[in-house]
Amino acid sequence: MIAPFRWWHIEPVLLIEDELFGAERWTAPMFWNELAAGHYYRVFLSADDVVGYAGLAVSPPDEAWINNVGVRRDAQRRGVGRALVDDLHAEASRVGAKQILLEVAADNEPAQHLYASYGFEVIGRRRGYYQPSNTDALVMSHEL
After folding, report:
1. Which residues touch 10 (CB under 8 Å, ≥6 apart)?
2. What do the Gene Ontology cellular component annotations say (predicted)?
3. First vs last C-alpha separation in the chain
4. Ranges under pLDDT 50 in the chain
């Protein structure tokens, strides 16, 4: 079930962040900032456990950025990520965005394939974007 991301979801989301991203994980203050800014964040709940989360920031007049998508490893390949991206896509359309953008690690092929299935295309590369691993980020875009 997809639900609004609330402050009490930050702690379980941080566990997923640590599992997936290690030293490059987001911190609690980063999530607090996203929620305080009013960005569109959702969690995927299974038996009241957070198994995934995703966030979208709208940049008026017509651009939206997917800031995060994370799915707990034991819940991957079960449609959780796709359901979250579907939800973000619907919200971007609802607010009138004409373009959705995102950054994804150049070595994260499963995520790239997921985004490509929505029509996202690579439009750029940010060298050494993810720190401390110095991994490049691919900038992907999808026209709505």
Report:
1. 28, 31, 32
2. ribosome
3. 25
4. none
Q: Quick one: pLDDT at residue 61? A: 85
Question: Catalytic residue positions?
Answer: 103, 115
pLDDT of 95: 94
Structure-token pair, residue 67: 């800031």
Q: What is the pLDDT of residue 48?
A: 85
The predicted structure's pLDDT at residue 41: 98
Residue 40 pLDDT: 97
In the numeric block, the tokens 């959780």 are attached to 80
CA dist 35 and 87 (Å) reads: 17
Task: Tell me the CATH architecture of domain 2-143.
Answer: 3-Layer(aba) Sandwich (3.40)
Q: What is the pLDDT of residue 91?
A: 96
Alpha-carbon span 10 to 125, nearest angstrom: 30
Kindly tell me the sign of the dihedral angle through the C-alpha atoms of 115, 117, 118, 123: positive
Contact predicate 129/137, CB 8 Å: yes
